[in-house]
Fold this sequence. Notes:
Shape: globular
Number of domains: 3
Amino acid sequence: MSEPTHEPTHDMLELHEDVGALGFEVAGPPWILGHRGAPREAPENTLAGLRRALELGLDGFEYDLRACATGEAVLMHDATLDRTTDASGPLARRTVPELFGIDAGAWFGRRFRGEPVPLLDEALDIVADTPGRAPLHMIELKEPGLVASVAGKLRALELERSARVASFLREIVLEARDAGLPSMLLAVNAEEDDRRFVRDERVDAYATGPGGWRAAAGAADWSFCERWSWSVDDPGDLLEACRVPLFGFNTNEPRRALATRALTRLAPGDRGPYPVVAPELVVVPEGLRAEERARGEWYGSWSRAARVRNPLPFAVVSACSVFLRGGAFEFEGLPQRFPLEPGEERDVPLRVVGGSRSPGPDPLFAAQLFWRAGPGRCAGRLLLDAPLTRVRLLRSDAVAQRLSLLAERPGDPPASMIVQQSRRDLLVSIESPGDLEDAHVLAHLAGHTARGGRGLRLRLPEDFEERAAGVAFSCGIEGRRGGKPAFRRWAGGVPEGIEHGKPGRLVPRRA
């Protein structure tokens, strides 16, 4: 069985290129930016990734900045070079000449070998192919001390209005505002304290995580600033962002985001859910037969039904299929092709067998809608997709439970963690780290990721016991193997990153 790969399949790319074939150009708002470029198709925070975001038709890109040893602004999310380059250690200890010899692309794919670690100047030099259309830059400052340099470079190129300088740190946001730059405060969820800060300090924009605006819907006034979101990928979240619409957002799913924006223009009166619903695939490693387990523990056999709805005010033909991003799968029941009247929906039964050793990108169920020319419209097509998400489930309990971690390589020794609910808290600790040295806990709960020593105490949402579907949850162990960083996991979602799959779910014991 092949392991997950970052390289999209040729068939997937070929079909997805049809997303924009609508006979008209769909512009913002919302303005859609690539999160760290186009991280499913090119290494994150690289020039190749930023260029690919524009090639896909996005309005711009988001990238992260940190300072190297000589003070220059460098595109890098992490404080260290380990994850996204062939080097190791803190970025802050490397000079610009030292960075020139570092490869920021080979980890992602062979064709990106030799991709450099870019400086801010190089990112600002990228221009869109469309004359008169400068790409939008959402520039997240990960640390203090960069605002003056960023301001000088943006002014020199007259790009101030094409940029939003963003940070989770209020002092950086205020410094950007005082430097005359369009400033943006980042947050996970829209909070009243943030609203007052943004209003009173005259900050230009405020951005939440995916779904982070829901708590503010219909309540407090946010009209004094631009409303944004970051890392919006889920089909339902994308539809919500485009319907509001937000002023802009960034995404790891550019094709899905562009198609969703087009959908809201084609069907402005539709208020139904996202038109393509893919079933969830629950993974139960403990239930695998020996021959299945040998192929990988992130594996299974499922008979489920997807659903396709026609949200358009005219008849369409739906062509359904599945596309792989990694792993090895077999499908029965696809492809299918059938007509749909306006508002009509149809179940699509399918059987899925397969998986991978490690949590990673899940298969996509896709429906391409075709329609003929009619009164006031030309013929067109629109591809909508949703992931067949593989998840692991855990029922919360006041009694301590042992969680066996996945064997993600042949011969991985057993590793385990202990999880226990204590009133409003979830206690997560290491029982056995397997072959990892310097082990510490890594956990994700309800959208937040935390790291600790041998254990963590995590606060459950106040309404956890009322959430029958549960909350996102995963845990694992970070450490070192043979002197190199390594980890073991119970499910996807840890460490954070689109290459690590989706978190599992923690379900209330009374649900």
